[in-house]
Amino acid sequence: MTATQLETDMSPPDRRGAAFKDMLSRLAKSAGLALVVGLLIFVFVNWADGFTGKFNLFNLTRNLSVAAVVGFGMMVVLALGHMNLALGSTALASVMIMGWVMKVAALPVPVAVGCGLAVGTFLGLINGWLIVKTKLHSFIITLATASMFLGAVLIVFRAGPISDLPREFTGISKTRYFGWVSGMLLITAVTGVVLGVMYKFTTLGRQMLATGANADAAELSGIPVNRAILIAHGLSGFLAALAGVMFTARQGSALLSTGEDWLLASFLAPLLGGTLLAGGYVSVLGAFLGAMLVGILQNGLVLIGVPDFWVEFVLGLTLLATVSLDRLREVISARRGN
Amino acid sequence: MLRDYLKNNRREVLAIAFFLLAFVAYLSTHPRGVSTYVLTIWANQATVLALVAMAQFFAVVVRGLDLSVGAVMALSNTLASHVVTGSGGEVAGGSILVLAVATGCGLINGAIIVYGRIQPIVATLATGSVFTGIALLLRPTPGGDIDATLADAMTYDVAGVPTALILLGGILLAIHIPFRRTGLGVAMYAIGSNEAGAVQSGVRVDATRLTAYAAAGLFAGLAGSFVGYVTFSGDANIGPSYTLNSLAAVVLGGVLLRGGAGTLLGAVVGAFILRTISALMFFSGLPPLAQPFFEGLILAIAIALGGADVFRLRNKLEVLER
């Protein structure tokens, strides 16, 4: 009898019900953020002069697409419960080398972009390899590699930025759809979908999440934890380089200041979107909405005439409010006994 | 006795030896030779970083992290450029106000981390950007003024010894030596090395952690004030490089980022190493741009040595836990 009961308890419909509930709660999480973003858009459309101007929207979507990829770059390591403080320096190294290949070596644009992305991936793999080998926290490893990458770039590219990149390359940032949607948003969207599919449907993605949820348990279950860590950091480097390439296309030159101030933004987008710092859970859509929130907030506040320092102030408060709300929701759901 | 001492404090001893080596190299390569002038300039730069490293030490020792130390520095620096001027009384009152505000910033961090139960990295990343915002509000562009009498008193020398070093020495004597013997100090180490154990032993975890973050704020405030004494002005953009360097300094000084180990002296020595190396590079003909690379390299070496240390411990399990 007990056996039958057990079987009924474990019956598929229940599990499906749980999965459905889980999916709903995930959607609800992003829906909350989407609501906030919607509200913000409503406010700025009505009260910020020039917000709906075609060029402003083009500019906004262009910045947003870069910010979202930066956020993805941090998200893929947050999935492991890791961090990548070298995101900015990795992007810098990638775009400087890309700029050199494009301008000085005068090789075709696709080759140069490929080189940049390869450099980013390689630097990310170095981070991953060091983390796996030393078993030290990614925070400290990437703190060290961040200044090493930065220093190496500054030594090699003493002459300064590489400007006047070919129009064929900068054109990436100039494409517009409907007169106001940046073409780069397409790159971001494709990247997001690929990442979403990876986490949802591929073994590799599930392995990364399992590693983030509990590395010991994952290891004992036969998951190649070290491989997952290595690949995730390589991917993070690739995404940093991709964001760098997009940023450079917008600027028209490979600047030495690339990635300088990405740290707060890189954490903001995924964390606003519900990705856990502890690892084991990511939300690609959330990270995109998070980047949207940050981008719209920055753009709108400046249009309203709010000075720069308040923008910084508001971003900090936004991050704090988000994590506090998250915390509150955890406490409430714990009290309900979920 | 001595052997035991060296063994128990091997990280600090190693760091001090490394520092002395670098320092001798620096003094012997300096084109102007050893003089009070050369020493004072070095001491003023090193003291700023040493104070931020001390701030970071308090956060790290309770198994935390403070990414807002640079921002608190910037905030206190810009505030000082407004209030630390005028009559003697105004200068004294202003200096105290600056330190009080900095300690308040630390308390806010501590409260968010302790009562909000939010990870220190996220909490201080967020508050850091709020503090930077306020600093920019106080001084959108670098400027202002700091009382010259106070500034000179702090940044010159007494009988050939840089005042900055005397100040640091005083702080170390007052805090480093009794630290492990006071209930508060022991409680901080206990929380850092084993929080559950500390709770079981009746340590007042929340109050202690709050105090640690407040101390971090206070020392960041001291660092920001000292920058003002050196530059005679307020600048809201001094923060970011100090935040990362403070972490590098504590690691170099043998303070473990997993908490519960290391000393204030170690943090100071770590800061000295970093500053001496950048000063060395300045005169050695290497491009100044290469500085971050070598700072990173040294940090990496320090991490590697710390990692090698781990394998000598008997109980690897806890250390390897990420």
UniProtKB/TrEMBL annotation, chain A:
<feature type="transmembrane region" description="Helical">
    <location>
        <begin position="309"/>
        <end position="328"/>
    </location>
</feature>
<keyword id="KW-1003">Cell membrane</keyword>
<keyword id="KW-0812">Transmembrane</keyword>
<dbReference type="InterPro" id="IPR001851">
    <property type="entry name" value="ABC_transp_permease"/>
</dbReference>
<keyword id="KW-1133">Transmembrane helix</keyword>
<feature type="transmembrane region" description="Helical">
    <location>
        <begin position="109"/>
        <end position="132"/>
    </location>
</feature>
<feature type="transmembrane region" description="Helical">
    <location>
        <begin position="85"/>
        <end position="102"/>
    </location>
</feature>
<dbReference type="GO" id="GO:0022857">
    <property type="term" value="F:transmembrane transporter activity"/>
</dbReference>
<keyword id="KW-0472">Membrane</keyword>
<feature type="transmembrane region" description="Helical">
    <location>
        <begin position="228"/>
        <end position="250"/>
    </location>
</feature>
<feature type="transmembrane region" description="Helical">
    <location>
        <begin position="177"/>
        <end position="199"/>
    </location>
</feature>
<feature type="transmembrane region" description="Helical">
    <location>
        <begin position="262"/>
        <end position="289"/>
    </location>
</feature>
<feature type="transmembrane region" description="Helical">
    <location>
        <begin position="138"/>
        <end position="157"/>
    </location>
</feature>
<feature type="transmembrane region" description="Helical">
    <location>
        <begin position="30"/>
        <end position="48"/>
    </location>
</feature>
<dbReference type="Pfam" id="PF02653">
    <property type="entry name" value="BPD_transp_2"/>
</dbReference>
<protein>
    <recommendedName>
        <fullName>ABC transporter permease</fullName>
    </recommendedName>
</protein>
<dbReference type="GO" id="GO:0005886">
    <property type="term" value="C:plasma membrane"/>
</dbReference>
<feature type="transmembrane region" description="Helical">
    <location>
        <begin position="60"/>
        <end position="79"/>
    </location>
</feature>
TrEMBL record, chain B:
<keyword id="KW-0472">Membrane</keyword>
<keyword id="KW-0812">Transmembrane</keyword>
<dbReference type="GO" id="GO:0022857">
    <property type="term" value="F:transmembrane transporter activity"/>
</dbReference>
<protein>
    <recommendedName>
        <fullName>Sugar ABC transporter permease</fullName>
    </recommendedName>
</protein>
<feature type="transmembrane region" description="Helical">
    <location>
        <begin position="121"/>
        <end position="138"/>
    </location>
</feature>
<keyword id="KW-1003">Cell membrane</keyword>
<dbReference type="Pfam" id="PF02653">
    <property type="entry name" value="BPD_transp_2"/>
</dbReference>
<feature type="transmembrane region" description="Helical">
    <location>
        <begin position="67"/>
        <end position="85"/>
    </location>
</feature>
<feature type="transmembrane region" description="Helical">
    <location>
        <begin position="12"/>
        <end position="29"/>
    </location>
</feature>
<feature type="transmembrane region" description="Helical">
    <location>
        <begin position="210"/>
        <end position="232"/>
    </location>
</feature>
<feature type="transmembrane region" description="Helical">
    <location>
        <begin position="292"/>
        <end position="313"/>
    </location>
</feature>
<dbReference type="InterPro" id="IPR001851">
    <property type="entry name" value="ABC_transp_permease"/>
</dbReference>
<feature type="transmembrane region" description="Helical">
    <location>
        <begin position="91"/>
        <end position="114"/>
    </location>
</feature>
<feature type="transmembrane region" description="Helical">
    <location>
        <begin position="41"/>
        <end position="60"/>
    </location>
</feature>
<keyword id="KW-1133">Transmembrane helix</keyword>
<dbReference type="GO" id="GO:0005886">
    <property type="term" value="C:plasma membrane"/>
</dbReference>
<feature type="transmembrane region" description="Helical">
    <location>
        <begin position="158"/>
        <end position="179"/>
    </location>
</feature>
